[in-house]
Amino acid sequence: MTAPHTSLRSWLRHLAASDRLAAIRPGVALEHELAAIAKRLDGRQAALFPRPGGHSIPVVSGFMSRRAWIAEAMGVPEARLLSQFRAAAENPLPWREVDPAAAPVQQIVHRFDGGAADIRTLLPVPTHSEHDHGAYITAGLVIARNPKTGVQNVSINRIQIHGPDRLGILILPRHLHAFFAAAEAKGEPLEVAIAIGVDPLTALASQAIVPIDCDELEIAGALHGAPLPVAKCLTNDVRVPAEAEIVIEGRLLPRVRELEGPFGEFPKYYSAREEREVIAVDAVTHRRDPLFHTIVPAEMEHLLLGAIPREATMLAHLQRSFPNVTDVHLTVGGVARYHLVVQLRKTREGQAKNVMLGAFAGHYDIKQVIVVDEDVDIHDANEVEWAVSTRFQADRDLVVIAGAQGS
Ligand code: MN
């Protein structure tokens, strides 16, 4: 076990020193070309794009596109990835507020109140897929405070650039949605901040599946082994990672909806154009020489960010009833959401079926569960198929649950 990597810049230097960061030729187009190059390198090398579309801010992508890299960032062997994440989620570490003068992310400030600032020229936001409506922020940690308790929440939401100071956002019915619903019911906006360019462990922590009023930035601190330094936004009360590269400060507007999408999403299908929530931008702050992080949708960085916290949660859920469950994996072919493989140290006949039912109850996204013995490497699709082909008989071993909720 080594010390966790707590800084994006030191992590990128670490990748570069081991030939895992490709320096791309300067000036690739922000529209389609950048995403295509990052996709080509997916899972092999992260990509750094200087002067993308002629913009002075470089774009970086794919720096957490392998499970082994994420374990390395945590400072643990790959076999301990899920247990380490779970320990952090169960033992959050409160953050530490620093003076704005000591927050790198507030070195440069662009205020939008005068009407001259334009997010479309300030930031190098790529357009990823062929039929996307336009440029999207895909690696923004959206941070907001619960209007009732003041406790923060962090989530990654896809964010479309609508105009110079307007963003469209997809908000699924989870914690941010609950905060905004409470504000909107009173006719009030909800203050938000969008942090772009954070270290891999803070990005991963943002995806933890924890109850409302568990601040994911405290899980980032636990993964770091030290309280996360945060700074108060300049135009609102949200606290943001002080070491982030870029922060957008703004407000979710009550009773305003505008068309968002289409956008190529994680299952490699487009989501439809629909009326969705809108953020008004109040300020952009960033480091003197910031980096802009983009996640190419449906590629490994995107899939792993979702999969690892889900796997950790599913493993904990199953082990409460079945302590002889030894590991779980959401397969890449199942877009890291829909197909689960469970490794079981079977002690009684029939147990695998109970485990399957437990897994389906554990998350409504799960559409297929395969339970294998301990000698099968669940991260190797060939070994899993070998187990199915030699140890499974459909007439007695297959269970189909009809009519349940699912994707
Ligand atoms: Mn949450």
SSE topology:
Blueprint: H1 8-17, E1 21-23, H2 33-40, E2 46-49, E3 59-61, H3 67-74, H4 81-90, E4 96-97, E5 108-111, H5 119-122, E6 136-137, E7 140-145, E8 152-156, E9 159-163, E10 166-169, H6 175-185, E11 190-196, H7 200-205, H8 216-224, E12 229-232, E13 239-241, E14 246-260, E15 263-264, E16 270-271, E17 274-286, E18 292-293, H9 300-321, E19 325-330, E20 339-344, H10 351-362, E21 368-373, H11 381-391, H12 394-397
Parallel strand pairs: 1-2, 3-18, 4-12, 20-21
Antiparallel strand pairs: 2-3, 5-17, 6-9, 7-8, 7-11, 9-10, 10-17, 11-14, 12-13, 14-17, 15-16, 19-20
Helix pairs in contact: 4-8, 4-9, 9-10
Instruction: Decide which structural class fits the backbone.
Output: alpha+beta
**What would the average pLDDT be, to the nearest integer?**
97
Portion in helices:
25-40%
Q: How big a fraction of the residues is strand?
A: 25-35%
Poorly predicted regions are: none
* Spatial shape: globular
Cα distance spanning the termini = 38 Å
Number of beta-strand segments: 21
Named once each, the bound ligands are: manganese (II) ion
Count every helix, treating DSSP H or I runs of 4 or more residues as helices.
Answer: 12
C-alpha Rg (nearest Å): 21 Å
The biggest sheet amounts to: 9 strands, antiparallel
